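Newbie here. two chains, one complex. Structure please?
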Amino acid sequence: MSTPKSRGRALCIQLTTLNFGIMLSYWINYGFNSIETPQKWHWRVPVALQLTFILTLLLLVGSIPESPRYLTCHGHEDAAKVVLSRLVDRRIEDPLVLTTFVEIQESVKQEVLHGRGHWYEIWQPGRDQTRRRFLLACGIQAAQQLGGVNALICKLP
Amino acid sequence: MGGIVNNSPFLDTFHLDTKANAGLIGTIVAVYEIGCFFGALTSAWYAEILGRRRTVVFGSCWLLVGAIVQASTSNIAVLIVGRIVSGFGMGATNSTLPVLQVHQHLPARDDLLTSSG
């Protein structure tokens, strides 16, 4: 279970590991460029090494539970409670589990009541300022790429 | 890919030249993002059917196939297809895993934690 504080940390860990991965891949590429093989196959090794992370992900995803929100949305209320109790490490009857479950259930009910939403709503200004949020999110991503940092990351080494 | 495509072992395998085939090499690198684009957009549809967890497994399988194809081919067309497949898997996993993480990060409830104990 995360507090707002630890959520920020979780986000930062994700970015740190991302950049660590980029660094790792460049050192591996560098290492394999300095060796010579007669059939010129050694560029394949760094490409194939990503398999270790994919296989690790496939193994680990078996141990993480399904999203309790998704389960509640699709009528698997009991399964959602089991997941919640696992996440907070308490029994299913625990008030913490039940209140969290009721909160999720309420928000799902609200969604059903007001309709699931349509794709065109992304472009509506409206009360929730959806268009503004959407453009902001896209704008940040676009600016990040147009800043040219990826070209530097790709071509500099 | 950035550290690989401009070096002689890769270029010799595919009979490429950095000057003459600059556009093609750029395409080989960039086509991955096209795959990501479609993987991320379509995941909105099948993540609802499969569930978040199985979408990650589904995306990982695409990643697995893409990686094997890329590492084993000596044909440019196959390499490009491999990168699209990899990109599709990356788009699917990368847009679904954060959702799964957020849903498992339950809001803090210090009041309950302290009062029920």
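Moderator note: Chain A touches chain B through 47 residues (CB under 8 Å). The helical segments of chain A are 4-33, 44-61, 68-73, 77-88, 95-113, 130-146, 149-155. Thread marked as resolved.
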